[in-house]
Amino acid sequence: MQPGSHGLNFELKHYQALQIVWAESPVDPLSARTYGEDPRALHGILALCQRSSRYRRDRVIFFEGDPTDYLFFLSRGSVRTCRSFKDGKRSVVAFHVAGEFFGLDGEMTHSLRAEAATDTTVMPLKRSAVLAKAVHDRRISDFLLVSMAKELRRLREHTALISRNAQCRLATFLIDLSARTGKTENLDLPMSHQDIADYVGLSIETVSRVITQFERSGFISRTSARSLMLGDRNALMRIMA
Amino acid sequence: MQPGSHGLNFELKHYQALQIVWAESPVDPLSARTYGEDPRALHGILALCQRSSRYRRDRVIFFEGDPTDYLFFLSRGSVRTCRSFKDGKRSVVAFHVAGEFFGLDGEMTHSLRAEAATDTTVMPLKRSAVLAKAVHDRRISDFLLVSMAKELRRLREHTALISRNAQCRLATFLIDLSARTGKTENLDLPMSHQDIADYVGLSIETVSRVITQFERSGFISRTSARSLMLGDRNALMRIMA
DNA sequence: CGGCATATTGAATAAGATCAACATCGGTGG
DNA sequence: CCACCGATGTTGATCTTATTCAATATGCCG
């Protein structure tokens, strides 16, 4: 892959979604005009990538404790960031889908491990190079700010699930995933039930049972375990409370 | 309170903690040199505050759905950001302590409610003014970046609790709180048990029981319900797994 | 001192985890 | 193309953990 093309084969809507964050009034200095209509910021960042890397499902992209020397642009596939505990349990803290950055951190070492949840293509970007460029190009620092603001919001939403029951957790997960991938129907889950379970904090058995329950209630239908149709989104929304 | 003084009566260590984030090698453009040794960035932001506001315990600072016109610097007290659900339950997504910003968001409206967890003094800052100033002063945009990176990391840590048991959740909470407030002993909880329960996703009864359990195990001791002594931090760390 | 918030403790209940058996899927090699 | 096999997902029975409900205690502020 050439540096000039930047492997921009992720869907355009992801990029646009990234851009409109903080879109507000026309007078806002960080408005849609600044972010939304000019791909140069993203382009400028991705120009720092020498070559893209591919990871097969379950391969580790960085470990907990690794230096935060690189951040990554995910051009294809999906990534999970997670932590494993001494008792063998695992928490998936976040999923990332195509068009998103991951590995941004304010410390010198990663506090989480990143793994490919499906086969992926990522563009590694030397953190120091990105930051050096951000010093001279304010659109790039703004871009980072926007990326982080988006991730913050997603984490806040997810955190609010900690006191909710199994149905609510999974309804929220499904609605969120369909929104992020832009799939309103025929939602193909880009991760295993085990990944979902570790993300929402339930056992795989409970995940399976609740999805079956949703199906029996007519909220969703399935062609296979991994490919759903959200027939009644409103019902799921109601469960989210 | 005069604009010149900016109500900087929060403890210096908070500020320093904020500054050393992303500190890395001397050649890093966003290194400790940039952030760590110059209070002008924070000063520059706080100069935008016309007057500080006080909120008594449980008062709402902003509601879910309110426009994100202001962000806030917390100069005294503690704040919780939370969401209430139709079934009457509440999730506390984050606590903020003196020296931190809150209310930063990438969208036009807040997705969470912010309330004073104790009596507080906050400095409201017009978001558009901060961003306008950030355009001309790169230290300010950097400062925002650092603030958000810190909040991201805290949320990630908290999110990982979703699949952990009651002891682990509370041990993590206590250790984290003592680190953030800098109190290694005589940890005074700046929030009610109900707040803690809604934060870690347990009932108040379970919170009470686990704390009692910690006390009986000799990990902590209490002079009152709200003032603890973490006698055996290592034991708590072990429980965090 | 009184009265209301907050916190503790116990007993019953419910939600989800765990254990175990079985089903299905997807890939591989014959 | 089909048979096989390991990985993934489903379903049922039982057990554990935390919730709920209820009663009591303690603290806090007038």
In terms of topology, how is this protein built?
Two copies of one chain form a homodimer.
Chain A: H1 12-19, H2 32-36, H3 40-46, E1 53-55, E2 60-62, E3 70-76, E4 78-84, E5 90-97, E6 101-102, E7 113-116, E8 120-126, H4 127-136, H5 138-159, H6 166-181, E9 187-188, H7 193-200, H8 204-216, E10 221-224, E11 227-229, H9 233-240
Antiparallel strand pairs in A: 1-8, 2-7, 3-6, 3-8, 4-5, 4-7, 9-11, 10-11
Chain A binds a DNA duplex (30 and 30 nucleotides) through helix 8.
Short description:
2 copies of one chain form a homodimer. By secondary structure, chain A is of the alpha+beta class. Chain A contains 9 helices and 11 strands.
What does this structure look like?
Two copies of one chain form a homodimer. In chain A, strand 10 and strand 11 form a beta hairpin. Chain A has 241 residues and is of the alpha+beta class. In chain A, the strands form three sheets. Chain A has a four-stranded antiparallel beta sheet. Helix content of chain A is 40%, strand content 21%. In chain A, helix 4 crosses helix 5 (138-159) and helix 7 (193-200) packs across helix 8 (204-216). Chain A has helices at 12-19, 32-36, 40-46, 127-136, 138-159, 166-181, 193-200, 204-216, 233-240, and strands spanning 53-55, 60-62, 70-76, 78-84, 90-97, 101-102, 113-116, 120-126, 187-188, 221-224, 227-229. The model of chain A is unreliable at 1-37 (pLDDT under 50). Chain A starts with 11 loop residues before the first helix and ends with a helix. At the A-B interface, strand 5, helix 4 and helix 5 of A face strand 5, helix 4 and helix 5 of B. The structure holds a DNA duplex (30 and 30 nucleotides).
